[in-house]
Amino acid sequence: MDLHSLPVVSALSDCVTIVEKDSVKIVRINHEKASAGIALHGGHVVSFTPAGQEDLIWMSDTAIFDGKAALRGGIPVCWPWFGRIAAPAHGFARNSTWELIEHRENDNGVIVELGLTSNEGIRQIWPHLFKARLIVEVTEQLKVTLKVENVDKHEWTFSGALHTYLNLGDIRQAKVTGIGPEYIDSLQNDEVIQGGQELVLSDTIDRVYTQPEADILVEDPVMNRTLTVTNQGHNSAVLWNPWAEGAQSMGDMPNDGYETFLCVESTLHAPSIEQGKTLQPGETYQLETVISA
């Protein structure tokens, strides 16, 4: 995503400015190691480009930046649930306005921290008190950490994901390894399937890989690079691409958009909210993804 043509709202430092696209403010980072963008709507990473490379993150050319709809592409923050196990789908975090807490920079890169807490609108969806932080570290690699804390007087249960869209030259030529031998296939009534250790796509995919390796590798021969996704705090990795028919049904994705991305997600998966992870008062949890080429 080209952030350089967007109007500047304010300059925060030599490396960090606030720009605006339509109705959404974006924290824009320009550092000698890499450039990046993080939308305050959704706490949503929309770009990460290491020096001398193409963007590692895919954004839809028709994503809607109205400050209401979830952004299509980037790294949506799916919390406090993942999937359609409650409404809205994938939780409220990706549709909420996050606050810029702090930013700091040195010779290695820039760290930006965003925050989200409960408000009247959120309490109507989810009645629990929480404190969420999104820490985005932009160096030669991208590290995104979702840190949530239970600041309520009772326990609550949740799931979530960092729903990364990886930017590829051609989905048909990409090869994925490190996903592990077993997955839950959402397209086959959540059947548990033993699969191969290597994946080349030719159709729609929506799978929860339950035993991923530490590093998931996506070979992209068209861009002559291999993307590495390293996750922590997860219990699975979700891989998703809607293919042609799915893309055509989405108003915020070009019909051919599916050809140039693959979602590889750091996921705390649960079939229902009740079966998710429980946090006691005062406890914290972190979900993390690191993306590099």
TrEMBL record:
<dbReference type="InterPro" id="IPR011013">
    <property type="entry name" value="Gal_mutarotase_sf_dom"/>
</dbReference>
<comment type="similarity">
    <text>Belongs to the glucose-6-phosphate 1-epimerase family.</text>
</comment>
<dbReference type="InterPro" id="IPR014718">
    <property type="entry name" value="GH-type_carb-bd"/>
</dbReference>
<keyword id="KW-0413">Isomerase</keyword>
<dbReference type="InterPro" id="IPR008183">
    <property type="entry name" value="Aldose_1/G6P_1-epimerase"/>
</dbReference>
<dbReference type="InterPro" id="IPR025532">
    <property type="entry name" value="G6P_1-epimerase"/>
</dbReference>
<protein>
    <recommendedName>
        <fullName>Putative glucose-6-phosphate 1-epimerase</fullName>
        <ecNumber>5.1.3.15</ecNumber>
    </recommendedName>
</protein>
<dbReference type="Pfam" id="PF01263">
    <property type="entry name" value="Aldose_epim"/>
</dbReference>
